[in-house]
Amino acid sequence: MDSRSEIRYRYAVSVILPALNEELTIGECIRKIQTVFHDNTIDGEIIVADSSTDRTAEIAQSLGAIVIRPEKPGYGNAYLAGFAHAKGRYIVIGDADNTYDFSDISKLIAPLEAGADFVIGSRFKGVIHKGAMAPLHRYIGNPVLTWMVNVIFGTRFSDTHSGFRAITRNALDQLNLRTGGMEFASEMLVMAAKEQLTIVEVPIDYYPRRTPSKLHSFADGWRHIRFVLLMKPLPFVAIPGLLFSLMGILLMGFFYSQGEVESSHLHTFILGAIFFMGGLQVILTGFLMKTYSIIHGYEKKAGIIEVIMNYHNLEKFILAGILLSLAGIIFGINIFIHWITINFGVLSQISTAIISLVLITTGIQVFLFAVFQSMMLLNENNGHA
Hints:
Helix content: 55-70%
Low-confidence stretches: 1-6
CATH topology of the largest domain: Spore Coat Polysaccharide Biosynthesis Protein SpsA, Chain A
Number of domains: 2
CATH class of the largest domain: Alpha Beta
Largest sheet: 7 strands, mixed
CATH architecture of the largest domain: Alpha-Beta Complex
Radius of gyration: 28 Å
Distance between the termini: 42 Å
Order of helices and strands: HEHEHEHEHEHEHHEHHHHHHH
CATH superfamily of the largest domain: Spore Coat Polysaccharide Biosynthesis Protein SpsA, Chain A
């Protein structure tokens, strides 16, 4: 082993605790970890990534923990700062609010020593003590988010948002983690699944907090959903959008092919227009999400997105958008001419007017999509110049 590896793996285990005003519990967490180290003869270090304004840092330092101050606030940023300082072969992470029993560290390390890359402490396979998890989180939030991850990435996890985890340093370095907020929990697991790491779940107990929770249910939930969709936007964004668009085309085409739409079918015709325009917007948004994911290194360029990301093809999209809007304007001009021929009498071309509106709006959507997409690709194309 070279000198760099010796420095890197100075300890067998590094335990990282993100902390935000946890003076009531940080001491107990550290003492539990130290007991595990002592009883199992583990050469380990404890790193507290602290952003507190209370005595958390003072207490942690007095007990021998390494205290660091992350440059940026946020759950993910705390862990990223901790990872940068950690020198253990195995990395254990857990919240400093004493909701996880750090006496169970050995349960997480054992699968790593047996060859696993990543271990998750599953609260749903263990015991969730009374008052430890809000009903909204226990019966809706966590199960739904776990289901999303399992469906999208083909995994079989029971608890994708447990904060008590262990991972080998080598596996951690493969993940290239970067998110700074609560979505870090999703990113870590999703990237581990994408890298095909050997992932194991072990049952753990989950205990009530002594202090008010710092979670923001809907904001944090949205962060997780946003990240998961960013990783796989086409199946869950673009494809539903395509189905709605096709449904809209069929509805409008069926009625319009029979001549001017009668008033009895007009609402259905309008519904078709809404389906088409809404679906198209969802499709284009899915492509933008996919582009963002590729630019930031989460996905690889392939298939239809490779065609769309071609800078020269985007110029064709811009042209297509202009032509669609012009077609809509021509429909509108024809209606106006017809209005003149009937001496500005009562018009009965509502469906044609709707077609005109749909074409103009679709053209604007496609034009703006191509412009924004090309702006996102400026750096990439300049880099290849």
